[in-house]
Amino acid sequence: MLEVRSIPHQRLINTPYLFAIATTLELATLPEEAKVNKPASSAIALCRAQIAPISRTTDVKEFITTVVEETANDCLAIMK
């Protein structure tokens, strides 16, 4: 999941929630001097700006469900 920016942009467009989670992990693992205060909020903002909108009303359950669906669909697309 890390190094999400190495994934082709077209795949990221189809997996914005997965992009947000991977970016959160990347931001959270930065050295102390480079860390942001709220990695998840920053990652979602980056996703909205660079990939696709994520609704501001998305709750945790919907977020996780969407990540699982995106991951499954991405795997199926790769297998084809």
Structural class: mainly alpha
How many distinct helices? 4
- Shape, per Cα inertia axes: globular
Number of DSSP E strands: 0
State the share of residues found in helices, binned by percent. Answer: 55-70%
How many angstroms does the end-to-end distance come to? 21 Å
- Note the beta-strand portion: under 5%
Biggest sheet overview:
none
As residue ranges, the low-confidence spans are none
Instruction: Work out the radius of gyration.
Output: 13 Å
| Order of SSEs | HHHH
Rounded average pLDDT: 90
Structure report:
By secondary structure, this protein is an all-alpha fold. 64% of the residues lie in helices and 0% in strands. The chain has four helices and no strands. The protein has helices spanning 9-14, 16-28, 39-50, 60-79. The longest helix has 20 residues, at 60-79. The chain is globular, with a radius of gyration of 13 Å. The protein starts with 8 loop residues before the first helix and ends with a helix. 18% of the residues are buried. The model has no long low-confidence stretch (mean pLDDT 90).
